[in-house]
Structure formats: structure tokens, C-alpha cells
């Protein structure tokens, strides 16, 4: 029997299920010969080729410690975002350059400025890595997630707010009762920090890892105040501050 052309994961599952049933019956009845084994091996190889062609994130594997009839299984890798984040909309004196990977505060004087990514995240897990460079420790910067429905400067009539962290280690969690340990130090006192921000849309939470300190923090997001899809937003105040997206 030739394997049909696979057009969906459901088709893959059906083909494998049928083959598994035949193998199980043959094993139970002890009713197979060498030519049957060769036929099943060919079918398995064809299915493996079709699966790998269908998606690079799905693969079929045989257990090398078990005979062909006894065990076959299909593995599916965890899907994560492969979208390349870039800077998009901004408010205030922001200059975007380097193929939209670098955003710099270029105001003649210190003033409020926002810039956010072009990515809109509604499901799954997504990681965005960036380097934040501050001109001094005098002023605070921040990064957070906001609803894509929210205006860039936060002046929308919609009652939406951002969730995230500031450079002095404060937490932005509107309506939440979160106390920060006064002795905790991560970004506070630093003018440069490399961050890996993770958005977990399915579980409605965000987290980050500071690549220098290896500190990890997590925050639940109230989607009534920050509905999906989410976008990543950065706040800068001092002239010369910049953020670079890393890939």
C-alpha cells in the first residue's frame, strides 16, 4: 500500500494509526513473514519522508531499542514564534534606524517618548531579546506589553494599561498588589542591561531574564486591562537613551 500524499497533521495521524493497527494484529496473531516486514518498513520510511516534507517542526522517530512491530511513535516539537521583531510606531523624539532594530531618543531635551514593536501576539510563546542603554541613572526607562488596541502614547479613551518593569526594578501591574523587596537589585543602578522578554499568551503572563544577573521575574497579565493581541512597548525619557533588538 502506498502512503497517500499528506496534506494535514490529521492525515498523518490516520495513516500511522492504520499502520500501527496492522502491526499490532500481526504481532498478536504471530502472522507475518519477512516480506511483510519489508513492506511495513517501506511504508514507515515513506510516511517519515512525507511527514518531514509536510513540516520541519514535526518528525517521526523509531525507538532503536525496540523491534519495528513493538514500538513506533510520532513526536511533535513545541512551536514558538520565529517572527523577527522590529520597531514600528513611536511617539515623541524617537529615531528608528538599522533596519528598524535600533530606536534612539533624539530630543533636544529630555522628554517622554515611546516606541513599540510591529509584532502582534495572540497565542503561543514568544521571546524578544533586546539591549537597553541609558545615558545616566537619573531617569527611569521601562519595557512592557500593551494591547495592540491601545494608542502608542496611552491617551486612548479605551481603559487599557501596560504590564511590565522599569529600570529601577518597579513592577507595572495595574490594580495588582505586588510588593517589591527594597533590597532587590537587578536593573537598578545599571545603565546597560540585556533582557530576554517572554510573552506567554496562552497562560496570560510575561517574564524576563536579565542576561547579566540571570535574575528571572514573572508577571500575570489581566487581559481585561490588557487584551490580546499584545505588543511590546518601550519608554525612554533622557536624550541619547536607546534600545536595540537582538536576533
Molecular structure report:
With 247 residues, this protein is an alpha+beta fold. It has 2 domains: 9-76, no CATH class; 87-246, Jelly Rolls. The protein contains 2 helices and 15 strands. β9 and β10 (171-172) form a beta hairpin. The radius of gyration is 26 Å and the shape is elongated. The relative contact order is 0.17. The model is unreliable at 1-8, 54-60 and 68-79 (pLDDT under 50).
Key features of this structure:
single chain; 247 residues; alpha+beta; Jelly Rolls; 7-stranded antiparallel β-sheet; 6-stranded antiparallel β-sheet; elongated; disordered N terminus
Mind telling me the CATH superfamily name of the largest domain?
Answer: SPRY domain
| Broad shape | elongated
End-to-end CA span: 46 Å
- What sequence of helices (H) and strands (E) makes up the elements? HHEEEEEEEEEEEEEEE
Could you name the ranges where pLDDT drops below 50 across 5 or more consecutive residues?
1-8, 54-60, 68-79
Please count the beta strands (DSSP E, at least 2 residues each).
Answer: 15
Structural class: alpha+beta
Number of domains: 2
Q: What's the CATH first level of the largest domain? A: Mainly Beta
Average pLDDT, rounded to a whole number, is 81
Would you give the CATH topology of the largest domain? Jelly Rolls
Strand content: 25-35%
Strands ordered across the widest β-sheet? 4-5-15-7-11-12-13
What is the level-2 CATH architecture name of the largest domain? Sandwich
Number of helices: 2
Secondary-structure topology with pairs:
Layout: H1 9-29, H2 34-54, E1 58-62, E2 72-76, E3 87-91, E4 94-97, E5 102-105, E6 113-117, E7 125-133, E8 142-147, E9 163-166, E10 171-172, E11 192-200, E12 205-210, E13 216-220, E14 230-236, E15 242-246
Antiparallel strand pairs: 1-2, 3-6, 4-5, 5-15, 6-14, 7-11, 7-15, 8-9, 8-14, 9-10, 11-12, 12-13
Helix pairs in contact: 1-2
Amino acid at each position: 500500500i502506498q502512503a497517500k500524499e499528506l496534506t494535514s497533521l490529521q492525515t498523518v495521524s490516520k495513516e500511522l494509526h492504520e499502520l500501527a493497527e496492522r502491526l499490532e494484529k500481526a504481532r498478536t496473531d504471530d502472522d507475518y513473514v519477512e516480506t511483510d516486514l519489508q513492506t511495513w518498513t517501506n511504508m514507515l520510511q515513506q510516511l517519515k519522508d512525507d511527514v518531514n516534507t509536510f513540516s520541519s517542526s514535526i518528525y517521526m522517530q523509531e525507538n532503536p531499542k525496540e523491534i519495528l512491530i513493538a514500538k513506533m511513535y510520532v513526536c511533535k516539537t513545541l512551536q514558538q514564534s520565529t517572527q523577527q521583531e522590529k520597531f514600528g510606531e513611536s511617539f515623541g523624539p524617537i529615531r528608528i534606524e538599522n533596519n528598524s532594530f535600533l530606536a534612539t531618543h533624539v530630543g533636544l531635551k529630555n522628554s517622554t517618548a515611546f516606541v513599540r514593536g510591529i509584532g502582534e501576539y495572540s497565542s503561543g510563546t514568544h521571546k524578544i531579546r533586546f539591549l537597553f542603554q541609558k545615558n545616566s541613572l537619573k531617569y527611569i526607562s521601562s519595557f512592557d506589553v500593551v494591547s495592540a488596541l491601545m494608542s502608542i502614547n496611552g491617551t486612548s479613551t479605551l481603559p487599557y494599561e501596560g504590564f511590565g518593569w522599569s529600570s529601577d526594578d518597579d513592577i507595572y501591574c495595574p490594580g495588582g498588589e505586588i510588593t517589591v523587596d527594597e533590597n532587590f537589585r537587578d536593573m537598578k543602578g545599571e545603565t546597560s542591561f540585556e533582557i530576554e522578554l517572554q510573552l506567554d499568551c496562552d497562560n496570560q503572563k510575561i517574564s524576563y531574564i536579565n542576561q547579566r544577573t540571570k535574575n528571572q521575574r514573572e508577571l500575570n497579565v489581566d487581559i481585561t486591562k490588557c487584551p490580546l493581541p499584545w505588543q511590546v512597548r518601550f519608554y525612554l525619557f533622557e536624550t541619547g537613551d536607546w534600545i536595540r533588538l537582538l536576533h
